[in-house]
Specification:
147 residues; Rossmann fold; 5-stranded parallel beta sheet; 5 helices; 5 strands; globular; 3-dehydroquinate dehydratase
Length: 147
């Protein structure tokens, strides 16, 4: 069964509380449950992570090199600043999908640049929390999921 790591960056632990006009009322726990459920339906093992610390995210990407068949990553604000996350993703030899709940291109200009996009096979932005599920559906045939 293929393993998919879903990585979430700073402040995403506050989904449902922080700026609901941008991010909605869905919590990170709600997203995790939906991803695990869809993953099971698609024949994938989902490993869900969140950290407010860049180094922990880098360490988790390093772990994924040995454990995961793909990564879905919403690096939050680290999208726009972290060369370290880009470098870690560049050591991962399987698909990477970048997800953003909001449309980063309709927001402040500093959010328009993504270091992660330089590595990602695809980017899903502005489709709300459904972006995570779309990324899983896209990855299923790429990683040889059973269903």
């Amino acid at each position: 069964m293929p393993t998919i790591y879903i990585l979430n960056g700073p402040n995403l632990n506050l989904l449902g509380q922080r700026q609901p006009e941008i991010y909605g009322s869905t919590t990170l726990a709600d997203i995790e449950r939906a991803c695990i459920e869809l993953g099971a339906d698609l024949g994938m093992d989902i490993r869900f992570f969140q950290s407010n610390h860049e180094g922990v995210i880098v360490d988790t990407i390093h772990e994924a090199r040995l454990q995961a068949n793909a990564i879905i990553i919403n690096p939050g604000a680290l999208t726009h600043t972290s060369v370290a996350i880009l470098d870690a993703l560049n050591t991962f030899d399987a698909p990477v999908i970048e997800v953003h709940i909001s449309n980063i291109h309709k927001r402040e200009s500093f959010r328009h640049h993504s270091y992660v996009s330089l590595r990602a096979e695809g980017v899903i932005a502005g489709l709300g929390t459904n972006g995570y599920l779309l990324a899983l559906r896209h990855l299923a045939p790429l990683v040889g999921a059973a269903r």
